[in-house]
Amino acid sequence: MEPTLPVRLSPVREVRLALLPDAAETTLPCNLRSRMPTQLVVLVTPIPDYLSSELAKRVYYVSPEIEQFHLVSEGGRVVAVEVTTSVAGDVGELSRKLDLIIAKDVLPQREVEAEVVWSSPHRPRNADGTFAQLAAAGMVAEMGEGIYATGALFHEVLSGLDRRLHDLAVGEFAASAFHYPNLISTDTLRRAGYMSSFPQFLMTASRFRSDVDTYDSFASGVASVDDIGQHIEEHSEHLGYCLPPAMCYHVYQHLQGRGLAEGPIVVTTRGQTFRFESRYRRSLERLWEFTMREVVFIGERTAVAEQRRRLMSAVGDMVTELGLAGQIEVANDPFFFNGQIAEYVRVQRAMELKYELCLPVEHGRSVAAGSFNIHGEKFGSAFGITLADGGAAHSACVGFGLERFAYALFCQHGVDLDAWPDDVRAMLRTSV
Ligand code: AMP
Ligand code: ZN
Which Gene3D superfamilies has this protein been placed in (predicted)? Predict the structure, then answer.
């Protein structure tokens, strides 16, 4: 499962503030927070406490004005949301939007039990303070919201991990390796259904309208405008490209219209991946830009399912060899705002279409360092990829967030690479 937010809903006798995602804590200086308006938005429809983490995952997407929030719990139900906003907002509007996501996305969901299908024999160690130590050692530096520069040692570990995953895909699964561009066609994402399932994550690429008057008016205003973002927006247009939110969409586009008479296809690729994680961004755990290694299987239903199973098992072995604590669990995607979420989540979990490799990091949290997904005929049919009998091909993809994976190694083995077990260093071929 995706790491849950730190929900602490203890039994309450009076209305109390129950949740503070610490991402919000880190993004705002205290003196600024205290000057911002705080409003209590009473929920028209209270939700049971077990759904509080589902609500907490969505509050920052409700409105960009929300700088911080607490869920207010009473008698086993979340009855209100206390929000701190950048400007004195319209409480009625916030209430309407919160109730909209509650009705569409939160209330229809059921309580789910974590279902673990694999556990590493290693036990987690206390890793609190790892991110601060990496920053103090100059191994990571914040470059913007959810964007980090990483130094040579961190990068060496990340590349070592990636090499292992690449070699596994090519050596054991006969994958073809491709490098894809950093732009992806908007139409590809629309056909893949990404825009209706995950609009909250999508980052688009725009450019200035190709017109000499546009360039002239833009360039002459640059020095004097207050809001450069707005100035750019006024002069730009969408040109049909976005930043990729996952690597596998490139593969479906690449193979579109292909018949697989020769047998299944396996492709592996690595690239920069972009997801707008709003104020949920957190250190190297949840980034707006990260590096993803993916392995994509396309072919007949049972072959694709078997390849996913084999790769999952091989990754479990690799995690054990790396000396990492962790587990693989049944998971679901963070679908958003399509009104059908309860059904998607139910089917995804019941059919075990998604598993996640969860690795412990700091403060008792775990992060999903990889996911193992089966899509049925969804992409084969959307992109006209067919089997020998003319039917739509099935697909599966396995994706790894390399910064998260590398960060979990630092959390669990420490920031001093000299102190890492020799065999782990050898596996990653680090030069230390
Ligand atoms: P998904 O396609 O959502 O299953 O994502 C595949 C993998 O990408 C996850 O298991 C993570 O390791 C990684 N990932 C997803 N979102 C982020 C993020 N915001 N920051 C860093 N890694 C991420
Ligand atoms: Zn994928």
Answer: Bira Bifunctional Protein, Domain 2
